[in-house]
Amino acid sequence: MKHTRTLNVVGSAQQDSPTRVRTMESRNSLANRKALPLKRVLDLVLTCLILVGLSPFLLLIVLAIKIGSSGPVLHTQIRLGKKGRPFVFYKFRSMSVDGDDAEHRSYVKRLIKAGNPYEGGKNGKLFFKISDDGRVTRVGKLIRKYSVDEFPQLFNVLRGEMSLVGPRPPLPYEYEDYSDWDRRRLDGIPGITGLWQVSGKNTIPFEEMVKLDIHYLKDWSLWLDIKIIFRTIHAMLKGEDC
Questions:
Q1: Residue 225 structural domain
Q2: Is 39 part of any domain?
Q3: For residue 41, with 0-12 CB atoms within 10 Å meaning exposed, 13-18 middle and 19 or more buried, which class applies?
Q4: Coil, helix or strand for 79?
Q5: Considering the entire predicted model, what is its pTM?
Q6: Which one of 108, 185, 209, 231 is CB 3.0 to 4.6 Å from 198, fit for a cystine?
Q7: What residues have CB less than 8 Å from 131, skipping those under 6 apart?
Q8: What number of CA atoms fall less than 13 Å from residue 210's CA on the CB side?
């Protein structure tokens, strides 16, 4: 996933002003209920195949987390789904259990309200994430690098709270700082991966992430979901923290 490709995707999302997106309706839009059954079938089929095929690998992750640090294997949070509805969100635990989220809260507020990057990266690139989080365990760093900490969300997909592809569900304290325009990214069901993740993720500012999510919901197609899934697999195998 090259940066030039990211700019092309983001650029296409930028063409739609807030006013235009509010007035345009796509027959494939995920805000349209008619599109949901086909997406749901894809989610259920692929989720069952992944869980069955990767079950030995998932058991190894469970053992590694248990051996690596004290605490539960799963980390649960309240996240907000479609139209801001709360649900219990699952991840493999990658942090110590006594970690303080004050730094993350401060980072999120600055990112949303001011759009500032958290820090500079290599080759002059800016990164919109906390890269040196002291709460992350050794095992946590590894499973985050390959994004396998997200696998428990497959159970959120089975429960109908999430999809394989869609906008990432925010934490309640993130949502509090959203504008009405930002909240349009929750017009559809949230996903494990999405257009933002495969378009640059941590090199993309918050405003562009919102545009990508709205662009995805407006122009959704089954083929788009399949392409995003394949690009996600490619990024995970390369350890690109998709």
A1: 61-237
A2: no
A3: exposed
A4: strand
A5: 0.80
A6: 231
A7: 118, 119, 121
A8: 20
The structure tokens listed for 112 are 């949303």
Whether 111 and 129 have beta carbons less than 8 Å apart is answered as no
| Residues 111, 128 contacting (CB under 8 angstroms) | yes
Q: Assess contact for 214 and 13: CB atoms under 8 A.
A: yes
In a domain, 4, yes or no: no
The pLDDT tens digits of the residues spanning 151-189 come to: 999 999 999 999 999 999 999 999 999 999 999 999 999
Q: Are 35 and 232 in contact (CB under 8 A)?
A: no
Q: Which two tokens mark 128?
A: 């919109």
Q: Is residue 191 part of a domain?
A: yes
* Structure tokens that stand for 156 in this block: 């959120």
Length reported for the chain: 242
Q: Give the integer Cα–Cα distance in Å for 139 and 212.
A: 31
Residues 6+ apart with CB under 8 A from 79: 86, 87, 88, 89, 169, 170, 171, 190
Count the domains in the chain. 1
Is 5 a residue whose pLDDT tops 60?
A: no
Phi and psi, residue 122, nearest 5°: -75, 150
181 token code pair:
């325009």
Nearest Cα neighbor of 193 from 157, 148, 163, 237 is 163
**pLDDT of 67-95, one tens digit each?**
999 999 999 999 999 999 999 999 999 98
